[in-house]
Amino acid sequence: MYSQSEKKELREAFWSNFKIYSNKRKLKAKKPGKWIMNDTGIKGLCLKFSLDETHAWVGIEISAKNFDKQIELFDKLEKLKSILEKATPQKLVWELEAKTESDISVSRVGARIENVNIYNTNSWNEVNVFFYSVMTPIEDVFKEYYDFLKY
C-alpha cells in the first residue's frame, strides 16, 4: 500500500504532530514540554509511547540486564499500583514478562488501545489524546515517587 519512504514520512509526521499536540497542552498546564522517556535516571526503566498498524501502547517499560533488578523494579511499581491506577484514565495492564517487537524480555505497566494505525491520519487525534491522557499522570506519579523507585 505504502512504499518504505512513504511509511517513514507518515511515522515522522505522526510523531511531529504528537510533539506539537503535547507541547501545547504541557505549556498550558505549566509543565516542561519534553517527556521524560529514557531520561528517567533509573537504569533499565523508561517511559514509552508505541504506535504501529494495529494498536497504541503507553506506559513504563523495564528492561534491566539483571532479571532480579527487573523484578525488583516491577515489585516497586506494584506497590504504587493503586496510586497509578487511580491517576490514569485507562485500565493499566501489568506484565511481569513481556516481549518487545525485537524479542527482548521486558516488564511493562501501561495502557493500550486497539484499531488505530500509525499510517491512518484519521486515527492520529484519538492516539494523541490517549497518549497524553495516560502518560501525563504516569509521569507525574513517576516524578513524585522517583526516590522510592530509584533506591
Explained architecture:
This protein is α+β, with helices and mostly antiparallel strands. The chain has one domain (4-150). It is built from five helices and four strands. The protein has helices spanning 4-28, 67-79, 81-87, 124-144, 146-150, and strands spanning 45-51, 55-62, 93-99, 105-114. The chain has a four-stranded antiparallel beta sheet with strand order 1-2-4-3, covered by helices on one side. Strand 3 and strand 4 (105-114) form a beta hairpin. It is globular and about 45 Å long. The mean pLDDT is 96.
Q: Count up the domains.
A: 1
Name the strands of the widest sheet in spatial order: 1-2-4-3
Mean pLDDT: 96
Tell me the overall shape: globular
Helix content class = 40-55%
Name the helix and strand elements from N-terminus to C-terminus, one letter apiece.
HEEHHEEHH
Salient structural properties:
globular; 5 helices; alpha+beta; 47% helix; 4-stranded antiparallel beta sheet; 151 residues
Topology:
Blueprint (H helix, E strand, L loop, with lengths): L3 H25 L16 E7 L3 E8 L4 H13 L1 H7 L5 E7 L5 E10 L9 H21 L1 H5 L1
Antiparallel strand pairs: 1-2, 2-4, 3-4
Give a short summary of the structure.
With 151 residues, the chain is α+β, with helices and mostly antiparallel strands. 47% of the residues lie in helices and 21% in strands.
